[in-house]
Specification:
The protein is of the alpha/beta class. It has two domains: about 5-120, Enolase-like, domain 1; about 130-220, TIM Barrel. Helix content is about 40%, strand content about 20%.
């Protein structure tokens, strides 16, 4: 007998969402993005519950889900995510990452139990701190102004993107923010050393010595 949470269908749609302004990602030097690609996934069940998730992914992920994941999920219990993660791991061997699917399964489990997934995982805190993540390498003046605005919007922490041609320029940005805003905002850094988009040149990978030097300078600040 089928369970009310038996999976009956898996659908995925690739969306091309226009951005309000051109975006020059720190991890894709030379690339200018005018839109944001994402895949929206829905897992449908026998009782009408729908698990929803989304990921920053293009059509290849949607194809991988359709070919390598969906056929193995149909007929299985969507409210038992831990029994299905092996399917996702196996699918990643032959296609793009499909880990985002697990979120939809936990969504079904939570809806079936009448609880947020966080409660099922033993939630303790009712609030968590949020930070504002930046995505572009920007000038010192622009970044200081960005952080003023971010602080005014209520954020207590910001993540900066590094990877200027000279890492000392990046350090100067942090120094300027700290001088302007003091300890009112926590500063995190993503150096974008491993996330370069393919096909774009100009990426200068830090040496171990440079990485240590930057880390020590950040510790000082």
């Amino acid at each position: 007998m089928a369970s009310p949470t038996t999976i009956t269908a898996v659908t995925s749609r690739v969306l091309d969402v226009p951005l309000p302004a051109p975006f020059r990602a720190a991890w894709g030097r030379g690339e200018v993005q005018s839109s944001y690609f994402m895949t929206l996934i829905e897992v449908h069940t026998d009782a009408g519950l729908v698990g929803i998730t989304a990921a920053e992914a293009r059509s290849e992920t949607a194809v991988a889900i359709e070919r390598f994941v969906a056929p193995h999920l149909i007929g299985r219990d969507g409210a038992a995510p831990e029994q299905l993660t092996a399917i996702l791991k196996s699918a990643e061997i032959v296609g793009p990452p499909v880990y985002c699917m697990e979120i939809a399964l936990w969504d079904i489990a939570g809806k079936a139990a009448g609880l947020p997934a966080s409660k099922m995982w033993g939630q303790f805190a009712s609030r968590v701190p949020a930070y504002c993540a930046t995505g572009e390498v920007r000038s010192l003046e622009q970044r200081v102004e960005d952080c003023r605005r971010i602080l005014a919007e209520g954020f207590k922490a910001v993540k900066l993107r590094f990877h200027s041609d000279d890492h000392r320029d990046d350090i100067q940005v942090v120094e300027a923010i700290r001088k302007e805003l003091g300890d009112r905002i926590a500063i995190m850094v993503d150096a974008n050393q491993a996330g370069l988009a393919p096909g774009f040149e100009g990426h200068r990978q830090w040496s171990f010595r440079t990485a240590v030097e930057v880390a020590l300078e950040l510790e000082r600040l």
